[in-house]
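ERR on first pass: missing label on line 2. Operator R.T. fixed the label and resubmitted. Corrected input:
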Amino acid sequence: MREYLERVRETSPLIHNITNYVTVNDCANILLACGGSPIMADDSREVEDITSICAGLNINIGTLNQHTIPAMLLAGKRANLCGHPVLLDPVGAGASALRTDTARRLMEGITFSAVRGNISEIKALAGEESAARGVDADAVDAVTEENLEQAEALVRAFAGRNHTVAAVSGAIDLVSDGERTYVIRGGHPIMSRITGSGCMLSAMTAAYIASNPEHILEAAAAAFCAMGLCGEIAWRRMKPEDGNSSFRNYLIDAVYNLDGETLEKGANYEVW
Amino acid sequence: MREYLERVRETSPLIHNITNYVTVNDCANILLACGGSPIMADDSREVEDITSICAGLNINIGTLNQHTIPAMLLAGKRANLCGHPVLLDPVGAGASALRTDTARRLMEGITFSAVRGNISEIKALAGEESAARGVDADAVDAVTEENLEQAEALVRAFAGRNHTVAAVSGAIDLVSDGERTYVIRGGHPIMSRITGSGCMLSAMTAAYIASNPEHILEAAAAAFCAMGLCGEIAWRRMKPEDGNSSFRNYLIDAVYNLDGETLEKGANYEVW
Amino acid sequence: MREYLERVRETSPLIHNITNYVTVNDCANILLACGGSPIMADDSREVEDITSICAGLNINIGTLNQHTIPAMLLAGKRANLCGHPVLLDPVGAGASALRTDTARRLMEGITFSAVRGNISEIKALAGEESAARGVDADAVDAVTEENLEQAEALVRAFAGRNHTVAAVSGAIDLVSDGERTYVIRGGHPIMSRITGSGCMLSAMTAAYIASNPEHILEAAAAAFCAMGLCGEIAWRRMKPEDGNSSFRNYLIDAVYNLDGETLEKGANYEVW
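pass 2 clean. output:
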């Protein structure tokens, strides 16, 4: 895992983000923390220029609107032409028709190197019954040790059918290219009590795959391992009076300080 | 007070926020801190879908624009149809004609369970002379022990005339349904030195009333008591080198850690 | 330097910001930290109203779009009519044609008291070969002790030709009105590892010049000295487990606590 992290720090990839205004500041700071560099631009008249000078593109539909959807398509197609890795975060797919339809339209028009979502979002995109509850995965859908085999099969099938890496975060993470699946344990439940843990993971995964374009599956898995491990490190810093706001700071700090050796030792995964 | 807080933690209400991009991240984190869950969506093509799956709606006009104003109206009307509590935060009413007019249009088109603002904003909506200074209450308008009776009468009348709960924050808070008024003391002056203390209070109040729809007045008052108390708890954590940025973190942390017993003991209010 | 800082704290200038959604919360909090007060508004129907009640205007093109560009022009022209200091932050000029062209159009239509950018952005606006890399200055362009004379000449010429104060931040800052140049040393490299250090400096500089309209050059230089010094103070607070997220908090905290005497003693500048 360490080589994927180190490659981010060595190459400092510039990542173009078309993302929601809720967690955009956290996404920018986590990109800087992991060794990348962020730029945000969502006007159709400039997204092709911007994405051309970047190493990767992160499309997040968290607060999509009539102006940003065409910009996402333009940017994605240009990034494809440039050969840059592109990641989709289908925030809230399943929660509104606009989100589900937009995510599907984006997947039809753009070749995504990776799709990073929670299990409810992936189910919604797969056309399965999804219990999406807003932007969070529903407890009914949650990946557990009990339903792990079924969930892994679903994620693997989604990846294979869509010729992408499906990167699904939760209590147990699943990252699959349709042939192999990384099953990753780690993190801490408090990560669901801050806004943006999913968005930050998408931004960081975009940096990892942009720096490791020949190893999309492994790099995405490394980003997931890094985030889970940093969640654990951040949790250990918590004092009794700390809450989710301090945790957010500690999490980004942990990403800032994470080195390859710590990741190598702390990553907890199996390959199925 | 404790039962209203505990009901939020038990029911974990999903709150739809159409809010400004300045403090939106803080609003999301305070909703998670108090036990709720946030979703932000402001495109007219999805706000009705989104608000339908939520328990309450928080409309904040802090950075309103030509696209979000129609979305606010659509969402508010749908939430009314669904019977969900809806809160208005008329940020900057009085500071521009667009804001004052928009707040009034929203109040004509939507039934609001509560309107949360500062005294200058409420005066502007009441058609009174207001000394609004941007988005903050003007010192001239501030509610003090000296003008408390007049201010309470104004807030009570506003609530009665508009068939809503008027929830007015300041050095002394006033929360009235036109019949009874909670007069709440607490908080700390540094709360006006961070951005978003008002917006966060609105978001949290939306969660409290969404979880306690039969007790809008009491639940709004409980949210105000909780925020004031958490301001005091956060202030006590401040070290000499800390400033407003650390205070913001401590405030959200305090909301995260607040339990019903602490609120019950610490709430400082009279009912007029 | 101290008088410029103290004048901000005495007059508490209300600053109208039309700025990007990435760092807007940090800009609001640093304005409050330094003694000013923020308001954000970007709809064309209200920006003239809003800027009229303010003391200064901060225009930042970080996430410009088709709606905010006309609003920037309207607000800037109105602020000029009102005689309020106006600052331009040409974020990413050089990174897309839209940004370069928009920054130039703004400079043609509005009289700016100051333009705050990094050296790559200023070079792009000056029509020189620029190695802009996204929104950060490129290493190739960086102002160092070796190229200081050339860089100073460039910044001075830009200021003179545009009848503005050019305020260029980097490892060495240059603030010039075309006749005199403040050469300012200080800060810490970690400032480039948080998002928003440039945007925050622009917002704070807008407050300083709004409170000191007769001394634009000196006030801008004071804001730069204050930010550099606060970067050093924040760095000294860093514990081993801290990273860029904690640094951001410490930086804003340091601005909150900075007094005139500390600034006077700590400012490290020459006047060329």
